[in-house]
Amino acid sequence: MTGWNLLTVMILLLPPLWAHASPPSASLxxxxxxxxxxxxxxxxxxxxxxxxxxxxxxxxxxxxxxxxGFIEIxxxxxxxxxxxxxxxxxxxxxxxxxxxxxxxxxxxxxxxxDGRVAVGSLFGLVDWDRLGITxxxxxxxxxxxxxAGVAYGSNAFTGAINxxxxxxxxxxxxxxxxxxxxRDTSLVTAQxxxxxxxxxxxxxxxxxxxxxxxxxxDESTARSGRFQGHYQLEAQTRLDFxxxxxxxxxxxxxxxxxxxxxxxxxxxxxxxxxxxTHSVKPGNEWYLQFGFSSTEEDEDFSLGLxxxxxxISPVQVPIKVPGQQDxxxxxxxxxxxxxxxxxxxxxxxxxxxxxxxxGGGYRQDLVNIREITGLKEWTDMETYRVQGNLxxxxxxxxxFNGGAIYEDNDINPGEVSWRLGLxxxxxxxxxxxxxxxxxxxxPFLIENYHHIAIRLEDGTDIDTVQVATQSLDAERLRSYExxxxxxxxxxxxAAEVKVYREEFQDEIEYVWDPAYPxxxxxxxxxxIVDMNSGKTDINGFETGIQMQPAEHxxxxxxxxxxxxxxxxxxxxxxxxxxxxATPTHTASLLVAQDFGRGWQLSAGYYYLDQxxxxxxxxxxxxxxxxxxxxxxxxxxxxxxxxxxxIGQNLGGDYYEFNTINEFETRTFLRATLQFH
Length: 676
Fold this sequence. Notes:
Elements: H1 3-12, H2 14-19, H3 30-33, E1 39-40, E2 48-49, E3 57-60, H4 62-68, E4 83-87, E5 94-98, E6 109-113, E7 116-117, E8 138-145, H5 149-152, E9 159-165, E10 173-181, E11 185-195, E12 199-210, E13 220-234, E14 237-251, E15 264-281, E16 284-298, E17 301-305, H6 306-310, E18 328-331, E19 336-350, E20 354-368, H7 370-373, E21 379-393, E22 398-409, E23 415-427, E24 430-441, H8 445-448, E25 451-455, E26 461-467, E27 475-488, E28 493-513, E29 527-550, E30 553-567, E31 585-596, E32 599-608, E33 611-612, E34 619-620, E35 623-635, E36 639-648, E37 654-655, E38 662-663, E39 666-675
Parallel strand pairs: 6-9, 26-29
Antiparallel strand pairs: 1-2, 3-8, 4-5, 6-7, 8-9, 10-11, 10-39, 11-12, 12-13, 13-14, 14-15, 15-16, 16-19, 17-18, 19-20, 20-21, 21-22, 22-23, 23-24, 24-27, 25-26, 27-28, 28-29, 29-30, 30-31, 31-32, 32-35, 33-34, 35-36, 36-39, 37-38
């Protein structure tokens, strides 16, 4: 049975299931219709119901997280309409993208953990293994499906992911989890939470390991510790903080060639975030937040003697070093240090018919990586931003949302991103919305200084690999969205539909220049040049449906259709692929059933159409997979024990991100022990 036939059968089964649901009450009230509507904080920085937001948003709640049976955090985003997940492009990194357009990095997507930015400032990379949290720590994930730059700045170009961790009061005391399974995967965590009158806190440690894909040097080990807390200084003032540290070795991918050998590297990441919040009265408050993060990777490998690399005798070496006829050349591609400091202020103001969130921020990114920039000392970029978002209720049925942000740094000219939106309530529980937005993405620091090369130890360039030959401009996105949100049967059936158009301009492309001038060329391949030369238009449709057809049955369905038209120079990397970087179809279906007496069963279906993962990836054929999870909750005298048997991809093998990453059937056993 093909994937689409299986999906059709599962959907056809819904009417019989729905027939067992309780009929809607004849005296249904507005409160019934609006019950349990998720409240999101991410879209406008104002707490809003998902029916009041100006853009499409998906909330992955705790029940979805548990029912999925996923082991790794980025897999959860397979449940979001229009999202694609590719594991792994190298070093066990996972690519997460919205509407494709991805090369393994997260340059156009913002990721936050309880408000802390988790996207690295060097490559625009999210190290999902070293976030310092596990799936068990997450209460919900708010995913903005569309440009969120007016709320979070340049990197939220195509969307934003806000991970909200669990409060200490939800599961106080000791909690242990252990997961083991295929590919020598193991995840062990221990945490302790305490909830007091003024001070709530949670401390956790974890160790994660996986061998990755068979035959690929992408194993990963991450040892993490995290401490977060909430302290009520006085009735109207509180202090929230989080501290984290992660470290461990990676298999360094590699093609096996001299310039990219298979090996291992060590990585570590430290972060801290402190927020002081003062509430003047309900709906009126301000906060001041300071964040710090530091990332370091250590790598050093020998490429061999310069004469051997050039295929000549030592006396013919074109570059002479005093006292040496020939010399050994070393590689340090992933040998760097990155620090980030982030200061942010925000104030919420509420009136009778309006609410405003305004503020500003300052960020300093510092990098020390000669191999990729050619610079021999610390290099920094300072970014300033000021933003504001307004919600104004024009009438009882018509809601206006508007927002703008100005972001400037000391390398690129400042730009203004803005968004306007209207939400119209047809009847309680039925909302139409329309929005238009223009967003700009400022190049990352590394994009401004990109100069990857094979160099001698004195810094002399021999062979340029990739370079930004001129100053890069900001990427531009104009987007249009029409949406509908509907809820029926006291919220037991909810649907969200989005029709959109996205117009990308000045996309930063990687263009091969075979005639790039160099001192010496080891492989006679020229160089990759970064330039603003890409353009993409995407028209599409997305929907997300949630059902509770019976008291103990829940279902989540997502589907996305995208029609992309991309253009780029003939020698751009995107032109070398047969498929578009944006897949035409993406779908998921998750069904969970509680049988009582502690038994639970859930199954997930995931489909991804053919697409190209640009750079490091490959043309990927379409695939579908089915996951199944069986769980048993056991009540002990002083603890609760949950046992889970998880099967992933219970069908034919498929390829993730690259044709060397063959994903076979995998099984896992997970145990969770929560003391009372």
